[in-house]
Amino acid sequence: MRRYVIAGNWKMNFTPSEATAFINEIKPMVEGKNNCDIIFCAPFVTIASAMEAAKGSNIKIGAQNVHFEEKGAFTGEVSAKMLKEIGVEYVIIGHSERRQYFGETDHTVNLRTKAALAAGLKVLLCLGEVKEERLAGITNEVVAMQTKLDLAGISAEELKNVIIAYEPVWAIGTGLTATPEQADETCGVIRDVVADLYGRDVAEELIIQYGGSMNDKNANELLSKVNVDGGLIGGASLVAEKFTAIVDAAQ
Ligand code: PGA
Fold this sequence. Notes:
Oligomer: single chain
Shape: globular
Bound molecules: 2-phosphoglycolic acid
Strand content: 15-25%
Number of strands: 8
CATH class: Alpha Beta
CATH architecture: Alpha-Beta Barrel
CATH superfamily: Aldolase class I
Largest sheet: 8 strands, parallel, barrel
Strand order of the largest sheet: 1-2-3-4-5-6-7-8
Number of helices: 12
CATH topology: TIM Barrel
């Protein structure tokens, strides 16, 4: 039995004080809802205050990116060791906005993932096809290739600390959601690729989230699909009632 993981991706939203207020608001709303893991991935400067507010609750705080080198001349970057030292447990890697706007490739996603795992972080690894690829009927090939490249050199043991977030790029922040059937099918393709690489048992343990305009209205149906083990939620993670409804759908 895989456990649901419901993760919010705040993106570039919430200052430290806004994050404190949000966590204080949502904490009692999700209290005792322990049938899923609840994570919010915060901007770097907001992590500490979010963690402080979440202390003693069932909410975990993660980061949205990490660099692959341990230290050095990489202006503007943050290392896995730095995140680890402040108590971060999860980090998003390879989000499509990083791929689209900041030059991330499968190669750098792979390097970042390896560095994060080596430092003892858990990774929310994002991948997914763009609209043209979906329309051209090559979604399965695209996500299969991304899965292979992003996981290259990662052992079955390390994979236990990886969650894959399948996020069709055309569904992110657009209000367009993959149908539950599309989400299930493509998450299933990813699981099959992982089975080819690591064996079926390992693939059946892997948590695969869907992300892309998941909200309080569509979460129930998406999460009811056998290959969808949770959600990575952008817009709806900024509104306590909406996010709580998604957590409820995972109970
Ligand atoms: P969205 O974002 O829920 O706003 O579509 C999802 C994501 O980018 O992780």
